[in-house]
């Protein structure tokens, strides 16, 4: 029977077998590693396919190289064109250099610089990068125009049988690893090529495995297709997970996935950030957001998966350093359960420390924002974390027991963007201090207790936990008069127990802050 007349799933399996003979001219198999969660809580046995260790630091080399390896001499002479958010582009670039094929690669304008530079590195003189549009779909439109205009061969990122077959070779490596079988596989979805090929191949050898698709909440095009019974285009798409930010699932992947996937899970950007942290803390693996989607879904369903053997794929590590630093520092990826509270206290000396002493004992303050706005009441904002959700859940009852009025503002925009207003006309003799203290339990509290209590009132506080061993805070104090302020400064050591440095902010900065 001709291959073209076979059912789609059988054709895909055949093409994966043929891809075995092609892709390893361009790169080597990647490892499958055990990830052990370190908190001691019940959960599944997790195995991670490390595509971040591939030639282009992402799985996309497999499909691009397999597709380009079968181009005819005439097609190679015409050159190729493609569109990509980054990882597919690197695969095309690698294949272009190895095979000596000219390639024009259209990438969205916001594509991380690390991915643009990697394309140039892998492709050298054989590739030309053209930035077009603000999204992957806009880049595709421009690339398709190029295809029609020039006759170049378009290399699709996911909606192509041989591209999908190339991706399926990573599933072949999993089967051959002797670490299986697995109870479940959590597979990230952008256009769907990876999830379709991997689920098809795994279920061929392990029919009982449950294959679950995973998408970001703001980019769930495959889930929308499942719900509608046909492919639909999303009006908007979140690009935090830029490698999977696709408005419409691929046709071939959709036809496979609807037969092989049991369901589709969605995860939030916060959950993805937490998964990136876990990958770093356990495997020292730096994942791009799209690469951590599968693990994010596993962690989300951790209790239900306890005792099972599950598989995830780190599909890529091409993350811009700036985005990585934001994920590491953001409350979007806390190391422990966290919530943000705005609490009302009297605008009187010592009340802030009494709040800390009475209600936050044993908790980790990861963010502290406050600016004086009235003469009567203060509304400081604290983001607090605890090792367990139970410890965090006790905080409201503590606040209620001590008579504090409070509100939960977790995720508030003004807190995220650190908009901290301060009325300078309410201050008598302000002093602003840059404090560098050792990030250990009690260090900040001890400084405030020993150096500030009963000497001044807080008028400003700006602190966010960065994960460093040294915490940094900008603190505003208000004194009765300049005499008391000067005396405080005179007796304040620049270094002391629990802190490394405490220096007053220059006078011009005083004026800028106190006039906000």
UniProtKB/TrEMBL annotation:
ACT-like domain sequence ranges: 339-411, 431-506
One GO BP: L-serine catabolic process
Coiled coil: none
EC id: 4.3.1.19
Keyword field: Amino-acid biosynthesis, Branched-chain amino acid biosynthesis, Isoleucine biosynthesis, Lyase, Pyridoxal phosphate
Alphabetized Pfam families for the sequence: PALP, Thr_dehydrat_C
Pathway(s) served: Amino-acid biosynthesis; L-isoleucine biosynthesis; 2-oxobutanoate from L-threonine: step 1/1
Cofactor section: pyridoxal 5'-phosphate
Catalyses which reaction(s): L-threonine = 2-oxobutanoate + NH4(+)
GO molecular function annotations of the record: L-serine ammonia-lyase activity; threonine deaminase activity
Superkingdom field: Bacteria
Family classification: Belongs to the serine/threonine dehydratase family.
Name recorded for this polypeptide: threonine ammonia-lyase
């Amino acid at each position: 029977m001709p291959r073209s007349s076979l059912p789609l799933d059988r054709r895909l399996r055949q093409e994966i077998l043929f891809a075995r003979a092609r892709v390893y001219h361009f790169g080597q198999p990647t490892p499958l590693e055990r990830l052990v969660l370190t908190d001691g809580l019940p959960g599944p046995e997790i195995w991670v396919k490390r595509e971040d260790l591939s030639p282009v630091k992402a799985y996309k080399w497999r499909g691009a190289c397999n597709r380009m390896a079968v181009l005819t001499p005439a097609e190679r002479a015409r050159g190729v064109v493609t569109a990509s958010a980054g990882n597919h582009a690197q695969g095309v670039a690698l294949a272009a250099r190895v095979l000596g094929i000219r390639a024009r690669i259209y990438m969205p304008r916001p594509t991380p610089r690390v991915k643009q530079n990697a394309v140039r590195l892998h492709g050298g003189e054989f590739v030309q990068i053209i930035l077009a549009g603000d999204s992957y779909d806009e880049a595709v439109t421009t690339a398709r125009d190029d295809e029609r205009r020039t006759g170049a061969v378009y290399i699709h990122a996911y909606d192509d049988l041989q591209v999908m077959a190339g991706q399926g070779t990573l599933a072949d490596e999993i089967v051959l690893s002797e670490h299986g079988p697995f109870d479940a596989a959590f597979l990230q979805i952008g256009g769907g090529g990876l999830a379709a090929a991997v689920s098809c191949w795994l279920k061929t050898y392990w029919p009982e495995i449950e294959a679950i698709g995973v998408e970001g909440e703001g980019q769930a095009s495959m889930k929308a297709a499942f719900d509608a019974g046909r492919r639909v285009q999303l009006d908007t798409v979140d690009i935090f997970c830029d490698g999977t930010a696709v408005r419409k699932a691929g046709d071939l992947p959709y036809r496979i996935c609807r037969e092989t996937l049991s369901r589709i899970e969605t995860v939030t950007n916060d959950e993805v950030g937490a998964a990136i942290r876990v990958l770093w803390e356990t495997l020292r693996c730096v994942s791009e957001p799209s690469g951590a989607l599968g693990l994010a879904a596993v962690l989300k369903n951790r209790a239900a998966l306890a005792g099972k053997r599950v598989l995830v794929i780190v599909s890529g590590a091409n993350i811009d350093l700036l985005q990585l630093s934001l994920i590491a520092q953001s409350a979007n990826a806390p190391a422990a359960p966290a919530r943000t509270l705005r609490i009302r206290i009297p605008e009187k000396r010592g009340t802030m420390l009494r709040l800390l002493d009475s209600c936050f004992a044993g908790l980790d303050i990861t963010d502290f924002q406050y600016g004086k706005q009235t003469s009567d009441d203060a509304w400081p904002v604290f983001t607090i974390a605890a090792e367990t959700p139970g410890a965090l859940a006790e905080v409201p009852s503590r606040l209620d027991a001590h008579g504090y009025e409070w509100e939960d503002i977790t995720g508030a925009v003004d807190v995220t963007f650190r908009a901290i207003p301060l009325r300078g006309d309410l201050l008598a003799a302000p002093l602003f201090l840059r404090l560098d203290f050792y990030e250990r339990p009690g260090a900040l509290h001890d400084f405030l207790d020993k150096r500030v209590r009963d000497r001044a009132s807080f008028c400003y506080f700006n602190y966010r936990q960065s994960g460093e061993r040294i915490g940094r805070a900008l603190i505003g104090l208000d004194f009765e008069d300049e005499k008391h302020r000067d005396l405080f400064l005179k007796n304040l050591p620049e270094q002391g127990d629990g802190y490394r440095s405490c220096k007053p902010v220059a006078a011009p900065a005083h004026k800028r802050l106190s006039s906000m």
